[in-house]
Structure formats: structure tokens, C-alpha cells
Amino acid sequence: MSRPAKPATAAQLRRGVLAVSVLHDVDLEPNRQGIWLTEGKRVWVPWGECRAAVRDADPESDTGRRRLARWLLARRWAADLDREALRSRLRPIGLPVGHELHQGPGWVRGSVLGDTLDLGLGAVGLDPDDPDAVVPLPRTALAAARLDLLLSWDDACDYLERMGLLAASRMQTRGEEALRPLGDCDVLTLLGSRTLRASLAASCEGLATVVAPMRTRAWTRLKLVDPAFAPAAWLVTSEEERGFPRPVLVTEDEVVLAAEGGNPAQLVTEHLTDRRWERDVLYR
Fold it and tell me: What are the pLDDT digits (tens) for 81-92?
């Protein structure tokens, strides 16, 4: 995806939100300063917020429209709940830096050392088509609900550490080497738990390697994973559900993306040739 030469103009944003209104069935009224979301309780969204929603995308591109739609729908769904109802649904959510669902710097409430994994707030039970999904909430949605961000984030962190402790306990007692979502935390979010990171690192003499190409599954032992699996699985997974394109190195304090390089696909395809004399090793 190419970065636009200049920030999106009000005209581009206006055309983008009108397209979102039609394509995603979002009721809205634009004016010179921003837009009103008009279904149910009226919600004001200024153009500056729309510009933050699209980030580096063209508002009239498919990517820009999807980002606008997710942002505006999250604002709409959050506004339909009273403060206590929304607070009860808040959950932590971890996303790779630059992920399609990432809401930008203003959304980040915490980051794991390593410049790879950011943590912010989302809410469960908002999306009527997928009530189990944790929807990332723009900071403006939380501000509009007049929620105490520090208290809300403390509660979310406590929940994350409880889930991390449970995940670590299950992996230890059951001997599992695959990490699965637990509670309302997907595997990327679970890696935000210091408790889980400490457990993984301790089992590998201080440095664990985790393969998590998708948000729904991760593997903690490379011997169980084909070298070409992570990049291939990441490529065929939708942008919204992707995890890390390469293995991550995990310590108690850090999550670091492994350096690029090598040709993992060659390791598993070179033996498929019919010209047996070209093989490095004779496979039977």
C-alpha cells in the first residue's frame, strides 16, 4: 500500500464517508466540520477524527473505506451503551505495530518492549454480526462515554494477567505446545501478559520462539512448525486476522520480530523435484 503524498483533504474524506454510508449501511449526515452518525443516539465525528481513522490510506481506496467503516461503526456501537454497560465490556487487545486493526498512536495504552506489539482497549459484544469479537475502540469513543481511562486500563491489565496465568498453567499441566485464545484474549493479546511471557521464556532457558501468523493460534516449539508455514499462513490470512509474518522472540520483558532473511519455502519444496540428481538429500 502506497502512502499518499499529502494528508487527505476534507473533500476526499467526504467522498470516503459517503461511500461507507452506502457500502456499509452507516446512517450519517456530513457537513463542513464533520459528520453526524444519525442512527439512534446522534454521534459527532469531526473530519480530523476521520483523518485519524484512515491513517496512511486514501479515504477513497478500499483500505481507507474499510478503516473508516470500522472506526465509525465502533463509535456508533459504543454510543449505544451507557457508561457502565460499556465499561463492563472493555477488554485488552494486542495488535502488531502497523496492523490493519490498529487505531493509531492515540489508541495505544501500553507497548511491550521490542517495538512489535501494542496494547489498547476494545470491547466485546459490540458487533452484532460477531458478538464474541473484541472491537478496538477509538479513544474518542471512550472519551465520549466519560470513562476513566486509567481505571479502565488497570482493569483490562488485571484481566489480561489472569488470562495469561491461566494460559501458562494449561500449557504446563497439559504439556501443550500450541497457544490458543482464552477468555476474550486472542493469542497476540495473551503475549502481552508478562505472566505468560515469563512462563514461556523460563521453559526455554530465558528466550522462547513463538510462531503466530494468525490471531487465533500460535506455536511455541519450532520443531512442530514447517519453516515455510509462518510466512505462507500469514499471506493467506485476511489482513484483519493476521498475526506476525515471522517468528517472534519472547523474553519476560520483550517481544521482538525475528529478522528477515533466508528462504524458508525452499527448505520444504526443494525435495519435490522429479530430477533426483538435483536433490541435496535423497528423500524416500
Answer: 999 999 999 999
* pTM: predicted TM-score of the whole model, two decimal places: 0.87
Can you list the alpha helix ranges (DSSP code H) found in the chain?
A: 10-23, 47-54, 62-79, 83-89, 139-144, 149-174, 187-190, 194-202, 229-236, 264-269
Task: Enumerate long-range contacts of 95-103, CB under 8 Å, 24 or more apart.
Answer: 95/120, 95/136, 95/188, 96/188, 96/242, 96/243, 96/244, 99/242, 100/63, 100/66, 100/67, 100/239, 100/240, 100/242, 101/70, 101/136, 101/240, 102/136, 103/71, 103/136, 103/137, 103/138, 103/139
Where do the structural domains in the chain lie, given as residue ranges? 1-80
Q: What is the pLDDT of residue 176?
A: 74
**Could you tell me if 46 and 14 are in contact, meaning their C-beta atoms sit under 8 angstroms apart?**
no
Helix, strand or coil, per DSSP, at residue 204:
coil
- Read off the pLDDT of residues 27-53 as tens digits, 9 standing for 90 and up: 999 999 999 999 988 999 999 999 999
Give the residue from 80, 170, 161, 158 showing the smallest Cα distance to 125: 80
User: How far lies 115's CA from each of 42, 76, 91, 152, 258, in Å?
Assistant: 38, 31, 22, 24, 12
Cα 87 to Cα 81: distance, rounded to the nearest angstrom: 9
